[in-house]
Amino acid sequence: MCGFCGFYLNIQNNVNESKKILLDMNNAISHRGPDAEGYEFDENEKIFLAHKRLSIIDLNTRSNQPFINKRHHISLVYNGEIYNYVELKEALKNKYEFTTSGDTEVIIAAYLNWGIGMLEKIKGMFSFCIVDKKKKIYFCARDHFGQKPFHYYYYNNDFIFSSELRSLIKHPSISKKMNINNTLNYLHYDSFVGSESPIKNCFKLNPSEYLIFDYKNNDLKINKYWNLSYEEKHEDKEQFKKNFLNIFKNSVHDHLRSDVPVGIYLSGGIDSTSIACMAKKVLGYENLTAFNLKFGQKSFDEDLLAEDTAKKLNIKLITHEIPINEQKDKCLSLISDLDEPLADPGYLANGMISEVVKKSGFKVVLAGDGGDELFGGYEPFLKLDIFKFVKNSYLLKKIISFINTYSKDSFGYMGFTYKLKTFAKGFLHDDEYYNSRWLCAFLPEEIDQLINWSSIPEFKFKKEKIYNYVSSLINSGNLPKDDYEKLLRQYQMHYLSNLICSHTDKANMNFSIEARAPFLDRDLFEYTNHTKNNLKNKRGVSKLILRDFLSKNNLAEVGNHKKKGFTVPIAHWINGSLKEEVMDTLSEKEMKNFGFIEYDYIKDILNDHFSGKNNNYKKIYNLFILFSWLKKNSVSY
Question: Any catalytic annotation for residue 2?
C-alpha cells in the first residue's frame, strides 16, 4: 500500500521546476508511504514519476518504486496488493527472471507477458501506472471494486495523475475551478461519484477501468476490463454452502499474505466476525490482533459483543474509547485531511480506529467491507417488500405522513422517526430512484432551492438529471430482472466504491494503514451474484450462509444481534461539540463569499436541526464537508 504521482507535459518546461513540482506532489501523499520514496526524471521522454512506499511485502529496498526494468524500458508506480502474486509468479517463472520476492515486480512480468490481458489474471486491490517507453504509452488501471484511487488531469494534452486529489492539484497547470455539475451531484450522493471530481478537467478512473495515454500521438482512451453480472445459475443449498465457504477461505488466506503482522477490525457484526473466525479457526492464523472502537453511546457501540467474540476465538482485542474531550479535535483533524469532499461519517469512525492501529504498531488490518453489498445486507433489501406494499396503499401512506408531520425527529443511531421520515422519501415519485432518495443528503428539488441560480446563469439545472448517474448503473448491460437486482446494482456499483471503499482508503491511509477486505474478491462476487436470492436471504434475514457458518463455530449470538453500521454519533456532535465550527463554516458571511448558495435555505435547515424539529445531520454534514474543503483548497467557481 503506497501512493504515487507523476505527469507528462506536452510543452517544454523548465526541468528543475518540473522536479520541484513533482516533489511537492509527492510530499502531499507522504502519509500513504512513510517507509521509502523514489523518483524518475526522464527529460528526453518528458516523463516524471514519484512514489511513497508503505513496506508490506518484500521489505527490501530492491522493491522500492518507481520500479524500472531498463532492459524493456518500462517503469512502474503502483499502490495496493496483488493477492495472487505467488501463483502468478509461479506461472511466469520460466518467462521472466525475477530479482525480488514481492508483488510489485510481478506486475511488470505480467504486463510483459500478457499485455493489457494481465488485468484478467491479477486479483487484488490496486491502482498503477506503467510507462512503456518503447510503445510510447502510459498504461494505468484501477482494481475491480475501486478500493484504490486513481485521480488524473487531462487537458491541452497534459496528463497528470496521483493517488489523491490534494496531490494532483499541487500541479500549477491545474486551475482550481469548481465543476458545478459534479458538485450538484455531490449534494445528492454525498460523494463525487464515478469519474467525477470537484475540479474542472480532473477525473477519476472508475472501478475496473484502464486508461491508455499515447503520448506520441496525444491520445487518451479509457476502457472497461471487467463487469459485474447477475445471471442466476441453478445450484442446491448444500453445494452453494460448500463452494462459497471454499472461495471465502481462499480469499481470507490470500489476504493474510504479509511480511508484517496483520490485525483485524472487529466490530461485533457478522462480516468482521466471519473473517476473524475463518482466519483463526479454519486457517489457523495465530497472531491475529483485533481492534474495536467505542464512543460511550450505547446505540453506536458494539464493544461487548466484540469482546465475547475475541474470547471465543482466543484473539487479542484492543478496545479504545475515544474520550469525549478528544472527539471534536479528532473529527476536525480528519475532515481537514480529506483529499476530496466525502460526506460519509463512516470515514470518521475508520479514521479514529486507524489511529489506534497505527499507535499499536500495525501496518495491515482486515476489514469487513463488501459483505453487505455481496449479500444485500442493508435495510433497503430487507424492507423492500414492505416498501412495495406501503407504496400501493393510499391509507398507509397517509398514516406515515401524519406521524412524520407531528412527531419529533430522533437523533440516535437509526431512530424510529428518523427512519420513518427517510422511508417516506421513497413515495415522493413513482420511479425506480427510491433508494437514491433514501440514501441522499439533498433531494433534487431541495438542491433547486439551495442554489442561487442567478449567480450561475449559464448553468441550466434539470432536477431529473441528478438521477442520471444511478440510472446508468441500474440499466447497464442486461436489464435487471427485478427490484432486488436494481438495489444490488446500486450498492455494488455505486455505494461500495464511492462511499465504502473511498472512506476506507482515505481514513486508513491517512495513518499509513493498509486495510484489506476479503469479501472484495472477484471470484466471490462472481459466484455469489449468480446464486439464487433465497439461498442468501430469506424472509427479511440476510447472510444466511454466514450466520450458519458462525453458528457452527459457537458464534450464533453475533447473527442474532441487531445490525449496526460502523459510524459515529455525528448528529449529536453537530448539536454539541461541532456546532460552533458548523455555524462558522455555514454562516451568512461565508456563503456570500462563495456566492452560489441561498443562505436562507441553509438557515432553515440549521434552525430545524438545532431546535430538535428535524434531524438534518446529513444535509448539514454534506455542506460542512464541501465548504470546509473548498475554502481550505482555495477553490472558486
Answer: yes
Contact 421, 456 (CB under 8 A): no
Q: How far apart are CA 164 and CA 359, in angstroms?
A: 24
393: its cell numbers: 396503499
| Of 33, 36, 49, residue with least CA distance to 1 | 33
Residue 605 carries which side chain, given as an amino acid letter? Answer: I
Lowest pLDDT segment from 247-251, 350-354, 614-618, 622-626: 614-618
What span, in angstroms and rounded, lies between the C-alpha atoms of 288 and 310?
10
Entry pTM: 0.95
What is the 8-class DSSP label of residue 116? G
Residue 381 contacts by C-beta under 8 Å, 6 or more apart in sequence? 484, 487, 488, 537, 542
Question: What is the C-alpha to C-alpha distance for residues 411 and 579, in angstroms, rounded to an integer?
Answer: 15
Query: How many Cα atoms occupy the beta-carbon half-sphere of 586 within 13 Å?
Result: 26
Which pLDDT belongs to residue 300? 56
- Joined grid coordinates for residue 432: 425506480
pLDDT at 286: 85
Per residue in 482-517, pLDDT tens? 999 999 999 999 999 999 999 999 999 999 999 999
pLDDT in tens, 202-215: 999 999 999 999 99
Higher-pLDDT residue of 567, 240: 240
Residue 57 phi, psi (nearest 5):
-120, 135
Phi, psi of 131 (to 5 degrees): -105, 115
What are the pLDDT digits (tens) for 360-376? 999 999 999 999 999 99
Q: How far apart are CA 435 and CA 67, in angstroms?
A: 44
Alpha-helix residue ranges (DSSP H) falling in 369-498: 371-375, 379-382, 384-391, 394-406, 416-424, 434-439, 444-450, 468-474, 483-490
With cell 412527531, the residue in question is: 407
Q: How does residue 435 score in pLDDT terms, banded at 50, 70 and 90?
A: very high
Other Cβ atoms less than 10 A from the Cβ of 530: the count is: 14
Angle between helices 617-632 and 180-189 (to 10 degrees): 150
What pLDDT digit, counting tens, does each position of 87-122 carry?
Answer: 999 999 999 999 999 999 999 999 999 999 999 999
Distance (Å, whole) CA 345 – CA 609:
17
Q: State mean pLDDT over 416-435.
A: 86
Mean pLDDT of 236-250: 94
The pair phi, psi for residue 533, each rounded to 5°, is -60, -35
Cell, residue 611:
431546535
pLDDT score of 406: 74
Return the axis-axis angle of helices 483-490 and 384-391, rounded to nearest 10°: 120
Sign of torsion over alpha carbons 558, 559, 562, 566 = positive
Strands (E), 182-256: 202-204, 209-214, 219-224
Q: How far apart are CA 36 and CA 4, in angstroms?
A: 12
The residue from 2, 277, 440, 501 that is catalytic is: 2
Q: In sequence order, what are the residues at sequence separation of 6 or more whose Cβ sits closer than 8 angstroms to the Cβ of residue 453? A: 459, 461
Q: Which backbone phi and psi does 221 adopt, to 5 degrees?
A: -130, 145
- Peptide bond before residue 66 is cis, with ω within 30 degrees of 0: yes
Q: In which element (H, E) is residue 250 found?
A: helix 237-255
